[in-house]
Amino acid sequence: MTPVSDTALDSLHAEATEIFTGALEACNIESAFDRRIRFEGKTVRRLIPDGSGPETINLSSYKRVFVIALGKAATPMLEVLMDRMKRRNGLRGICCSKYLPKRRNWRFRYFEGGHPVPNEESFDAARATLAMLKKAKKDTLIFFLISGGGSAMFDLPLDPQIGLEDTIAFHQALLASGAPINEVNILRKHFSAVKGGRLAIAAPEATKVSLLLPDVPLRTLDALSSGPTSPDHSTNADARDVLKKYDLAGKLPSSVSAFFERMDLPESPGNKGWRQNILPKLPRLIASNARTFTAAAAMSGELEAFRDSVFELLLSSHDLVESARMLAEKAGFFAAVDNSCDDWDYADAARYLLERFHEMRKEQKRFCLISVGEVTVTMNRTPGAGGRNQQFALQCALELANHPGELLTVLSAGSDGIDGNTRSAGAVADTTTVERARAFGFDPEESLRAFNACPLFTSLGDAIVTGPTGQNLRDLRLLMSDNS
User: Fold this and answer.
1) pTM of the shown model
2) What local confidence, expressed as pLDDT, does residue 181 receive?
3) When comparing pLDDT for 209 and 309, which is higher?
4) What share of the chain has pLDDT > 90, as a percent?
5) Which CATH architecture group holds 3-26+317-482?
């Protein structure tokens, strides 16, 4: 390494980080909110109607307004809503997030839910929400503010006999399975009393507005926080297929395995495409944790609970990648986007993107390949300190080591500011990462095998630390070269 290449690599590192942080800043919840929905006196108006419900809602038509905010972005979403909505009479709500505000509104109950696995407050928040929704009638308007992370932060088993310890073990097994998020959340939906549309069913007569900030592929929006207000199209059979596909049954607590094997397991609410009685044969299975289904709720009748529902997408990973593309082009890079490796294994995604990157960068002086989405990690041992972004970056570093002297950089980071079980959002790797890591006494290959990439990147000064961002629009990957 020469001093010139050191300086040039530092500059490329800085540009990659600036594109990532700039893209996050551009995806502002407050401005996104104002682009999608507006409060005008006693009227709520949708600025971009899409046919999924009324274009305007008259607040004076409702005696009560409930707000249920859950997920990593629950606090900023709630603060924006409260700033815009001047009505306070009959307003009550619940906020469940890992990141709670210092100043709290007395109209709300706050719960610090666990992530990446539930805690006792996750259960408490779910119970409090079900109790509140039970009071909702035709004169009730409910705002659901839903962002990523709610699957763990906000949970309660459908079977009241399953406790917190077994629920945590269930979530841990899913996280280690390597399954993509949509399949993981099929299991969560059928396990939980508050997912897979069951919050909508808990308040069947109320008008419901779901404002979404997804950390899932746009084609599977019902996977966001496991779809608490969305009709579920997956079935119990689908859930059992996922258990079999990833050989999970033997890795779950016996209480959870027995739960999924029950022949009287009720279906989650939604159009399954075939007729089946969703009434539980054993009411005790449901009644303790969720509103019991009635005959009027069966099959087509249960879909009435979704009839007056509005679903509004505030921001998505598309906004994140477009912001990154514009910033890269402004910085003088030729930018290309490839999101095709979404939900791939991290190593497969790294190989694919690097192959595309090396081929495309030949034609450009300054090139940036942008990819958004999440990769998966299958763990066969107790992990060290790391996450999917640092795992991806370290895998790329091993390949970049084959290109000494070239100005190549890979950044991978989570838009929520948290990668796995660490305080880093992700990491930056380059052609010197492996050499520098070994000089510091690290074995990069062993760090990769042990899912322990964070200490390596932290020691090199290449970990990206933003702190919790209040966002959750999936992960951003930047592969950058400079041949100028």
Assistant:
1) 0.84
2) 87
3) 209
4) 70
5) 3-Layer(aba) Sandwich (3.40)
Mean pLDDT over 136-143 rounds to 95
Residue type, 386: G
Please give the pLDDT value at position 302. 63
> Per-residue confidence at 458, pLDDT binned at 50, 70, 90?
very high
Fold of 29-313: Rossmann fold (3.40.50)
- Listed by start position, the domains of the chain span 3-26+317-482, 29-313
Average pLDDT over residues 87-104: 90
